[in-house]
Amino acid sequence: MKNIIVSLSILFFVYLMSSCNSEKSNTTANQETPSADTNNEQQLCFLRVTRGEPIVTEEDTLPVIDSLIIRLVIKNDSVAGVYNWLPSQKDRLTGSLKGTLKGDVVTAIHTYGAEGTTAREEKVMKIGADSIWIKHGELQEKEGVWVLEDKEAAQYTESAPKVNCK
To answer: Whole-model pTM above 0.90?
Structure first.
């Protein structure tokens, strides 16, 4: 029970730290889908928490809670932000996003650390009214960046609901 409380506390702390920034903003995640012709900076946040079957050991029962945290800061057609995949066990990907917005589609490079190495991967995400969809497909390495081999064939198969930015 103590491990569950500690694990949940750590997860909540990570979420708070990843969603905080030094500027105060009145922007909420409940705004319309951003357009590329606006001069205002917008912040959009998305969070998906998935609970799996607990792992039972001789000493304790460990919760399985995976989280995807995305924070986008959009100004005109430029996008920057955070993309963190935080599984409860291993293979965490924590890093930054930098890219462009065309209509409701963000194309960005995700620079992340995972298991002691740094990698760069193209992320294509479609912003909806109440969620964001992430495109997945075969990847190939080009000039040190993992990119979608066939962007047209890749599918939006993963989503995260919109939440208020804190």
So the answer is: no
